[in-house]
Design goal:
Layout lengths: L1 E9 L4 E2 L3 E3 L2 H13 L4 H4 L4 E10 L4 E12 H4 L2 H5 L5
Antiparallel strand pairs: 1-2, 1-3, 1-4, 4-5
């Protein structure tokens, strides 16, 4: 089986988070939506600072990682609803 390898880029810090693996973008979106729904989440508070990228694939049978050119999947701002955005950034 092959899983997707993702990383989050912090635009404010200019750094990448550690990579993580998920089966597909649908699972990614569900996990990220849960994260931005938490009131104490840094991704909710500073949603404009973070973009999520597909950076590779992991073959679970062979234990091999294939690196990709960075492909932007979404920004955290795309996952935060208007009500959540109201009092989040800059607070």
């Amino acid at each position: 089986m092959t899983t997707n390898v993702y990383s989050i880029f912090d635009k404010a810090a200019g750094t990448w988070f550690d990579v993580f693996c998920l089966p597909n973008n649908a699972v990614l979106f569900r996990k990220l939506q849960d994260e931005v729904a938490r009131p104490d989440s840094q991704f909710r508070k500073h949603h404009a600072d973070y973009d999520v990228f597909l950076v590779g694939a992991f073959d679970t049978r062979e234990g091999m990682i294939e690196a990709f050119s960075h492909e932007r999947v979404c920004g955290m701002s795309d996952l935060v609803d208007d009500q959540q955005k109201g009092g989040s950034d800059g607070v």
